[in-house]
Amino acid sequence: MLDATEGYTTADGRKIGGVVMEMKNITLRFGGVVAIKDISFDIREGEIRAIIGPNGAGKSSMLNVISGFYIPQEGEVWFRGEKRPPVKPYEVARQGIARTFQNIALFEGMTVLDNVMTGRLTQMKAPIWAQAFWKGQAEREEVENREIAEKVIDFLEIQHIRKTPVSRLPYGLKKRVELARALAAEPKLLLLDEPMAGMNVEEKEDMSRFILDVNDEFGTTIALIEHDMGVVMDLSDRVVVMDYGKKIGDGTPDEVRNNQEVIDAYLGVAHD
Amino acid sequence: MPDQLIYAMEVTLNGLMAGVLYALVALGFVLIFKASGIFNYAQGVMALFAAMTLVGIMNGQVPFSHLINAIFGTHIHYFGWQVPALLAILLTVVVMVILAWMVQQFIMRHLVGQEPIILFMATIGLAYLLEGVADLMWGSEIKTLDVGLPQGINLWIDETTYGIFGYGFFIDNLDIVATIIAALLVAGLVAFAQFTKQGRAMRAVADDHQAALSVGISLNFIWVLVWSVAGFVALVAGIMWGTKSGVQFSLSLIALKALPVLMLGGFTSIPGAIVGGLIIGVGEKLFEFALGPALGGATENWFAYVLALIFLVFRPQGLFGEKIIERV
Ligand SMILES: Nc1ncnc2c1ncn2[C@@H]1O[C@H](COP(=O)(O)OP(=O)(O)O)[C@@H](O)[C@H]1O
Ligand SMILES: [Mg+2]
To answer: What strand order describes the sheet that includes A189-193?
Structure first.
């Protein structure tokens, strides 16, 4: 645990640790549009943290700030007890933060297995000449990476499509492959942007189960975005609610559910 | 066997060898285009630059000597040493990597996310800049390049075919060596792309930038790598062509021969570049052989382009490219 602050115990008895990621007074603008307005919140070790809000609330923008795709104009990002300088997305990935995208970003021309293997790229350290001759460290690494990739594939129940080119897969399976690629990196923090969007009920149930299992079996800290409030409530330990770039609620699902501002936002009460 | 058929076989073989060179140049285009969406007009000039640098290093020429002499009133031109071919090739590779880094650092990095036409214009600028720099560094006179590759008629083929057909084929040793080296180069590139971390990252970037970033790949690094590999391919093409016809400005025009190859093979397909190159190489030689006399000769000047045009009309995505279906 990297932060001195105490954790907490969830309703179902899981131990949640100290703060892994802390956003302090983040403001992000696109020209005149303020996508995020002075938002602060933290993510704790081992928890499933949700960010919810109506479309256009700024949820994806927030995830992009965490993963380094967007650099906020104001505010600080603290990761594992250290203030993070402005970094590139690939550096964030190398620090152990993996992500999926709202609109799926897979390597369409590669097979499922190759896609998952790219998740291991950050873990490959052998120099190029060793790789060329398939010797020592390179060989060990490749074997180990392959094992981890296969384990993730088994875990997400996509063995039957291992060798299928991703471009041929239906939407729901693509979402799952994208999750597999992120998991293959063995991330400390996993960011999921609407992992269940556009899925049918059965697919949504599967995905919920996988998210819970990942958190449970590997202890992975997960931050996920959803715009459908119902789905999130059963899944997450704590919820940030955004609306028009502002944070309007933060707490356990029950707390958030009973927050008047949140209810208004979701019922579409006119903003003044 | 009728004589015409035997001649046609010889022409086909020679065409295959010429096609290998077209394929090599086209390969340089495909590499950069796949990874960054940039159509690199400067690929031909890169071959010229690489060949000039190689000759310059081998002869112990002082780079920028005209410039240095003009500024300081000195009269230096040569260091007075000769560099062995292999070492000179290695040094030229280093120069091409530095060039790749500079292109990325000072030009392409600032144009990320721009329209393809703007990237294309930038490479036109780069082509002329590089040509100027090459002249400034090494002087603009025609140079001969000899890295010790065998040249002249291959006697074994000549005698063997004479034994079989009663007519000896004329195949140049240089063409045979070029074919073998090109084949090794392609095999090496494929192995690199398939089995190394850097190669996988290269394929990933070629496929999807966002996704590549999310798995920890630095686009900047990959683009430097890709320009380096393209620079290396340009060097190999430059050596072959330069050995054959001397190192001079016309070498940069081989890029124009790569265009029809790309239209045939598709801009994103490595097998396409190879097959396209061979088809054009064989096609233009056979066409000239069969119909050249009737059409007034010199059909090699236009055959490739007309073939590419016909191809464009019927299969715009090329031989190996994926079919583009407009979503409506
Ligand atoms: N790259 C961008 N350029 C310009 N505007 C953007 C960009 N990304 C997001 N926005 C704007 O920021 C606001 C929040 O968008 P987003 O974060 O995608 O919301 P959500 O994910 O909650 O639906 C929207 O008004 C959107 O148009
Ligand atoms: Mg979104």
So the answer is: A97-99, A189-193, A221-226, A48-52, A238-243, A246-251
- Single pTM value for the model: 0.87
- B216 and A132 within 8 Å at the Cβ level: the answer is no
Nearby residues of A21 by Cβ (< 8 Å), 6 or more positions away: A42, A43, A66, A77, A78, A79, A80, A189, A221, A223
- Measured between beta carbons, the chain A residues lying within 8 angstroms of B211 are 101, 105-107, 118, 181
For residue A2, being part of any structural domain is answered with: no
Q: Whose CA is nearest to atom 25 of ligand 1?
A: A56
Q: Is residue A272 part of a domain?
A: no
Q: Six-digit token pair at B53?
A: 């640098």
- Cβ of A67 under 8 Å from any chain B Cβ? yes
Element housing B184 (H / E): helix B173-195
A26, A29, A59, A60: which to mutate for ligand 1, most atoms within 8 A of CB?
Answer: A60
Nearest CA to ligand 1 atom 3: A30
Write b or e for each residue in A85-116: b if 16 or more Cβ atoms lie within 10 A of its Cβ, otherwise e.
Answer: eebbbbbbbbbbbbbbbbebbbbbbbbbbbbb
Can you tell me the distance from the alpha carbon of B214 to that of B274, in angstroms, rounded to the nearest whole number?
32
Distance of residue B196 Cα from the nearest chain A Cα, in angstroms:
6
How many distinct structural domains can be found in chain A? 1
Range of the domain at A127: 8-267
Task: Verify whether the Cβ–Cβ distance B214 to A88 is below 8 Å.
Answer: no
Residue B197: list chain A partners with CB under 8 A: 121, 124, 126, 128, 131
Q: Which helix (H) or strand (E) holds A190?
A: strand A189-193
Q: Which fold has domain B3-140+166-314?
A: ABC transporter involved in vitamin B12 uptake, BtuC (1.10.3470)
pLDDT digits (tens, 9 = 90+) for B42-93: 999 999 999 999 999 999 999 999 899 999 988 888 998 999 999 999 999 9
Whether residue A209 lies inside any domain: the answer is: yes
Range B249-260 average pLDDT = 83
For B98-154, the pLDDT digits (tens) are 999 999 999 999 998 888 899 999 999 999 999 999 999 999 889 999 999 998 899
User: What are the counts of helices (DSSP H) followed by strands (DSSP E) for chain B?
Assistant: 13, 0
Residue with tokens 């250290």: A82
Shortest distance, CA B225 to any CA of chain A (angstroms): 13
In this prediction the ipTM stands at 0.91
Question: Is residue B3 within 8 Å of residue B166, measured between CB atoms?
Answer: no
**In chain B, where are the structural domains located?**
3-140+166-314
Q: How far, CA to CA in Å, does B300 sit from each of A123, B39, B288, B297, B307?
A: 52, 25, 7, 8, 11
Q: How far away, in angstroms, is A264 Cα from ligand 1 center?
A: 22
Could you tell me if A63 and A222 are in contact, meaning their C-beta atoms sit under 8 angstroms apart?
Answer: no
Residue A221 lies in a domain: yes
* CATH code for position A21: 3.40.50.300
CA gap B36, B207 in Å, rounded: 10
